[in-house]
Amino acid sequence: MSSLAIAFILTVLGVVSAALAASHYNCDGPLGSNLPQASFQSSSQSSTSNVPHFSKLNRRDGAGGWSPQVTDRQPWLQLDLRDRMEVTAVATQGRFGSSDWVSGYLLLFSDTGLAWKQYRQEDGVGRFVGNVNADGVVHHKLSHSIRSRFLRFVPLDWNPSGWVGLRVEVYGCAYKSYVADFDGRSSLLYRFNQKSMSTVKDVISLRFKSRQAEGVLLHGEGQRGDYITLELHRGRLALYLNLDDTRLRFSSGRVAVTLGSLLDDQHWHSVLIERFNKQVNLTVDTHTQHFRTKGEGDSLEVDYELSFGGIPLPGKPGTFLRKNFHGCIENLYYNGINIIDLAKRRKPQIYSVGNVTFSCSQPQLVSTTFLSSSSSFLSLPATPSASGGFTVRFQFRTWNPDGLLLSTQLSLEPQRLELQISNSRLRLTHHTSAQQKEEVSTGHRVNDGLWHTVSLGSRSLQVTMTLDSEPSSTIELADHMDAGDNLYFGGCPSLSPADPGCENPMLAFQGCMRLISINSQPMDLNLVQQGRLGKYKELQFDTCGIHDRCLPNFCEHGGQCSQSWNTFYCDCSGTGYAGATCHNSIYEASCEAYRLTGSSSGYFSIDPDGSGPLGATQVFCNMTEDKVWTVVTHNSTDPVRVQGSTLQKPYVMKFNYSASPEQLMALVAGSEQCQQEVVYSCRKSRLFNTWDGSPLSWWVDQGGERRTYWGGFLPGVQQCSCSLEENCMDMNYFCNCDANTDSWANDTGVLSYKEHLPVSEIVIGDTNRTGSEALYRIGPLRCYGDKSVWNAASFYQESSYLHFPTLQAELSADISFYFKTSVPSGVFLEDLGLKDFIRVELSSPSVVTFSFDVGNGGVVLAVKSHVPLNDRQWHYVRAERNVKEASLQVDQLPLRFLEAPSDGHLRLRLNSQLFVGGTAARQRGFMGCIRTLNINGMTFNLEERAKMTPGVSAGCPGHCSGSSSLCHNRGRCIEKNSGYVCDCSQSAYGGPSCKEEVSVSFDRESSVTYTFQEPFSVMQNRSSQASRVYRESTRARENMAFSFMTTQSPAMLLTVSTFSQQYIAVILALNGSLQIWYRLHVYRKPDVFSPSPSSLADGRLHRIRIHRQGKDVYLQIDQDIHRKYTLSSDAELILIRSLTLGKVIGGENFDEEVMQAGSKGFIGCLSSVQFNHVAPLKAALLNRGSSLVSVRGHLVESNCGVLADSTTSHPLSDQAAKANKDKEQQGNDTRHDSAVIGGVVTAVVFITLCVVVVMTRFLYQHRQAQRDASIKEKEHRHNLETAYRREAAYQAEPVYRAESAYRTELHLHDSATLRDNREYYI
User: Fold this and answer.
1) Of 238, 226, 249, 231, whose CA–CA distance to 187 is shortest?
2) How far is CA 1257 from the centre of its chain?
3) Per-residue pLDDT tens digits for 575-625
């Protein structure tokens, strides 16, 4: 029987037994209505008309309920049920006819009325919601029942216009208990009737409460190696279980299954062990762990006896192998046998060792909780010691690594002692003066949540500190001294006049203390609570409120949980995931995603289901072809020769892939196409029986089904590739091997029906005849594409929506999608519960909101864009909610997040369908397109659901209808069958829409040099489209654009040099002003323009655009209008050699001021540099190592351009002033030039006539050549990718390297808008 089936049987048995028990078990009767007056107690009462026994539900006795004194700092109402009862529900009411009621409270329970424990609901919430008026009844059914005698209601909040008023009732039934008390030196032995007991199924149940963190509860073992041990270890329950494995019996490496925490809290805990064969369920309180036990057998064989409470050593009465249990056990059942009942009736099967009694002794260890890490403290007077000096002793437990435990002023001022937890160690500090101190430390991880005992004493000239059983640490004193008048435990009061030297060093103590004694006198904290002893603030008496926030472990994917008093943390190291709860994969989902980040071919880890349960797997990403192939290898990729196999004894090879079957299924399902090559050669070895067509060899698919097709045929067709291609060597057969010839034949094919891939096994059965053999090789699995990326739906009715099954997202949910719309608002998705909900919507044209409620009240996260989001462009949204925090991301806007309350509800409980594109009310529906909807790693098939939904259509038409807005900064929108891509090869920008800043931080020694090839040779190897662009840029001469940010001057921004010693330089002068240098003639002075005397080295981002046409140079700085300057010559740059950004080394032809700036280099940020069709900065980043790009010094890719741009503003008033000034200047220039216009017009007309005559003949001669070029250009517009693949024919030429960056750029963004680009969007 499979382990899955056994686990299912265990689950069904548990459910059935629970249902049967419930049908015969009624435990909801009122328990408080018949209690006597003495059973009701309180912290105080406001009057004799508000005494505690007037607090019965629906009664109007006295003043209609209980109310405490107004001065009561910690009011509570307590019920004594007279015996231990099982409580299943509670109800509250306000004081009758008044404005007094409780709106929130805690529920505590206790067996003794001294040591209390806070009741927590299923998800750890301790707060109960109370009343909203005086007479309404609020009823709470407890998620797990309480078995206790005393209950205490502790009001937290009440009507702000009134006071605390309370009437209560509790519901339940009587509770029967068989109890045994173990004193740490005793045990019960249950002896079998035969020598050994062998069981296949075991059910062991018990309840216990312990005074210690260590102790054996149950033990049994057999001679063949079987054993079972249940013991407390460091406050957790450990189960050791082994079946028939002698290797583990005496091994020190025995592994325990541990569960539970803080089980030494002197309160009852339930344990249930269910075993069937090797499958085991271990339940402690409300937490269950399933596991499979060690060993070879299925039965547990125990010799002679089972021991409870300890492990007695054979032959030595009263001697035990391990530390015994010290506490009480009740209702102990072993396979239906009531062990304690047998012991109590002194049955012969039970042997008692030591002193076992049958009533539970009542402990007197009462704790106090320090609630605040900033303001809690307890001040107690230092009683005088008869022997001089002082001693302090107490116990503490906490999760916090830092906190003040004790502070006291010594008799010799200003000396004082401080005892604190620092970095998880205990540290004692003796302050001898304001500047001098002595310190000693001890312990390790004292913040482990366990009780620790610390003693501090002053005697003679020493102060001694002792922690638990560790050696003492001592500080030597110069003089004998006593403690001051007060001892401060847990913290210091703020601005205390009694002790101004008491200050919290870092944090106050947050945790529990008990057994406080000063000079050997125990401190009665009841007197403190009553105000009769000492002072306190932010304390909770009679209970230890410590709570294990790592149980259960909310860290996903194997993350390690650690905690402080208020929260928990997840260590995601080595898991492959990140985030507050290790929810988000750190790996890309596909090879396509890695290519978009600029990666080249190689081995990568991919996570096909993102944040889903599957982990990452390593694959090979082949990015050298037009398609990006994901290659998954297996254990047998070399050719294998097969001989001697028959159908009865076939050859079988199973393939183990580098990914798990589940990962392979996810990879295949998410790919557009997959294939796997099967190379099969044969000699006298058939694939099919020639008589009846039955298969002699076959392969097994991913689902374990036998397959008999050997090529790209559809399933069920027993044929090979040669039949498809109609070239089989014998046309009477569908496979070459079936011809059964003595010579080698080949039936190699490619399997491409991806639902059957990969091949998991191959079976060959006809190689046993003389001369018969086969040779096969199964290639790796190869997949490409992502069919979910453009899975889109269009919503064109406000009342329309798509519905899917209820969202399974109790503890965590990440939702991501793209949308585009023109409407101002609409709901993207919504799912509802009884009270809980989750919703993502466009609430206004520029605001996306993420709202939800898990029971703590509605939460709304909003991200506001500085531009409208209903602009018909694709926008990315990612919303995440987990038990730690919630976050919302929209495009590149700043991430918004909100931390979850530390003690709030955790689970999002939904029960309706998931509505996409609308709501259940059919109002506020979304109109537009949604694509790539992914929730918790699962992509939703919007297109399939849209086909059957009115008001919604599959896909999203018109991707490039607004290409000018989709692709920015000279990027070109290219229509694809299932979307579009932006060709950014002519842009200095990157990203899916060619609007990502490409920024680099430079230091003084940094430089980037882009080396040009011969421009005409380059253009000959480009497509016709590229040639046309180059011709346009030739007529425009030069176009330059870039952004920069610096505080340095002088500085070199950009230089362009030629082989003919010409150059262009853009620099910042000594005063920080911008200067543009044009040297177009070697023997002439350069033209220099200084557009503005103001300094641009001001630490702000400045955008520069320079456009030259002939003699005219147009300049734009930031948002200013273009300024026009005139050069002394219209000469062209001949044979451009290189472009350099930053520091210039050499450059003998540069002028002195340019050389000075070049030697200083550039310190700051350069962003989105464009020179004609070249983007040198982007080329440097994409082609590191290329011979075209030379990088010197330290360059760091940065987002400084984006960040600076987001904080840079330009007042409209300043722009208007500049515009008016330039208009005046242009008016003057116009009047000055009007005198020469007539002559210029005459010359232009004459020259034009001459040119027309010459060009007419020239155009006639080349008409045919132009027609051919036009045809090629049209072909290119139909398929740009064909033109780029044509570049591969020129790989042998050096000029190819000059265009590699741009061909790569197109590939880089070929699917850029088709994925969740974490780098770009998040």
Assistant:
1) 231
2) 71
3) 889 889 999 998 888 888 777 666 677 788 899 998 989 999 999 988 876
CA distance 327 to 315: 25
Q: What is the DSSP string of 229-285?
A: EEEEETTEEEEEEEES-GGGTS-TTPPPEEE-S-TTSSS-EEEEEEEETTEEEEEET
Q: Do the beta carbons of residue 282 and residue 293 sit within 8 Å?
A: no
What pairing do the DSSP bridges indicate for beta strands 350-353 and 473-476? unpaired
pTM of the entire structure? Answer: 0.70
Whole-angstrom distance, CA of residue 219 vs CA of residue 308: 7
Spell out the alpha helix ranges (H) of 959-1023. 963-966, 1015-1020
Phi and psi at 846, nearest 5°, equal -125, 10
Q: pLDDT digits over 1188-1215, tens only?
A: 888 888 888 887 766 655 554 333 333 3
Sorted by sequence, the CB contacts under 8 Å of residue 1260 that are 6+ apart come out as none
Residue 1258 neighbours by CB under 8 Å, 6+ apart: none
Amino acid letter for position 1228:
N
User: Which residue intervals of 50-134 are DSSP H helices?
Assistant: none
Are the C-beta atoms of residues 907 and 854 closer than 8 Å to each other?
yes
The whole-angstrom separation of Cα 1060 and Cα 1053 is 22
Listed in sequence order, the residues at least 6 apart from 1234 whose beta carbon sits closer than 8 Å to its beta carbon are none
497 preceded by a cis bond (ω within 30 of 0): no
Is pLDDT larger for residue 1149 or for residue 165? 165
Structure tokens at 872: 């018909």
Spell out the residues 6+ positions from residue 281 whose beta carbon is closer than 8 angstroms to its own: 10, 14, 272, 273, 274, 275, 288, 289, 290
Tell me: the pLDDT tens digits for 278-298? 999 999 998 999 999 877 788
Strand spans (E) along 613-672: 617-622, 629-632, 640-642, 651-654
- Output phi, psi for 343, to 5 deg: -65, -40
What one-letter code names the amino acid at 762? I
Mean pLDDT of 1079-1090: 87
Rounded Cα distance between 271 and 1182, Å, is 61
- The DSSP element (H or E) to which 7 belongs, if any, is helix 3-23
* Environment class of 317 (CB within 10 Å of its CB; exposed 0-12, middle 13-18, buried 19+): exposed
Q: What is the pLDDT of residues 332-361, one digit of tens each?
A: 999 999 999 999 999 999 999 989 999 998
Rounded CA-CA distance 1311/1248 in Å is 48
CA atoms of 328 and 267, how far apart (whole Å):
10
